[in-house]
Structure prediction request, 161 residues.
Amino acid sequence: MASTTIVLIVAAVFITPSLGHGGRKGGFMRCGLPPFADSDKLSVDVKEQLKSIWANYVEGADCSSEREQTKALIQSLPEDVRQSIRPMRPLPPCGLPPFLEKLPADMQQKVQAIWANYVQGEDCKQQHKETRELLKTLTKEQKKALRPFGGRGGNRGEDQA
Prediction:
């Protein structure tokens, strides 16, 4: 009896943290009404549908069904609405990237050519897009070298001047 109890406790300790993971690689996916549910970008009908999806959810319970329903609802929205409720990353500054000197010489020339006719204060989305496309051709090792401190898990002390 005591050994069965211990096995159940050990199983609970190892299984419980995986609940709510939802198969998402790299970590926990939160359950509950999404933060954009009250966005003025959503119609009243969509807001009500989101609230209905999550109305019976109990904290700590599996929420994979609610997440799937939420995902399906969001994917059914027009592209401009989906984009408007996405968390936005700040845009990088316009101009040559700060890591230009870390690129191979031929790539430096290509990036400089992309930005050659850019006028300060003008929209630079096209230049960013072209630069991103060019950077996609780098090898994993070359991309890693561009990251601050040598990428994930890099030794900060080695790269600091």
Q: What stands out?
A: Residues 100-149 form one domain. The CA atoms of residues 2 and 8 lie 10 Å apart. DSSP finds eight helices and no strands in the chain. The helical segments are 2-15, 44-54, 64-75, 79-85, 105-115, 125-135, 140-146, 156-159.
